[in-house]
């Protein structure tokens, strides 16, 4: 399934540092952009079905690609 593949990529590659992230749908459209103090923790939170809000569930359902960019600190994000 798509979300589990994305979750695995986040676990493997996302850094535990501040940054910005984007979510892209199957048509290549940017559907969400966010910032985080800890990219890995923030992105993994989208996959926790018990603690996420309905908006997050809808976003991750349509996400096909997750992108992120580390920043020097939270302020830069």
Question: What are the low-pLDDT stretches, counting only 5+ consecutive residues below 50?
Answer: none
Could you give the count of β-strands?
Answer: 3
Order of helices and strands: HEEHHE
Shape assignment: globular
What class do helices, strands and sheet pairing give? alpha+beta
Total helical segments = 3
| Radius of gyration (Å) | 12 Å
Strand adjacency order, main sheet: 2-1-3
Please state the oligomeric state of the protein chains shown. single chain
- Integer average pLDDT: 91
Q: Percent helix among the residues?
A: 25-40%
Largest sheet: 3 strands, antiparallel
Distance between the termini: 30 Å
| Beta-strand residue fraction | 15-25%
In summary, what is this structure?
The protein is of the alpha+beta class.
Outline the structure in words.
The structure is a single chain. This protein has a three-stranded antiparallel β-sheet with strand order 2-1-3, with helices on one face. The relative contact order is 0.29. The protein is α+β, with helices and mostly antiparallel strands. The chain has helices at 2-13, 39-45, 54-62; strands at 19-24, 30-36, 65-70. 36% of the residues lie in helices and 25% in strands. The mean pLDDT is 91. The protein starts with a helix and ends in a 7-residue tail after the last strand. The chain is globular. The chain is built from three helices and three strands. Strand 1 and strand 2 form a beta hairpin.
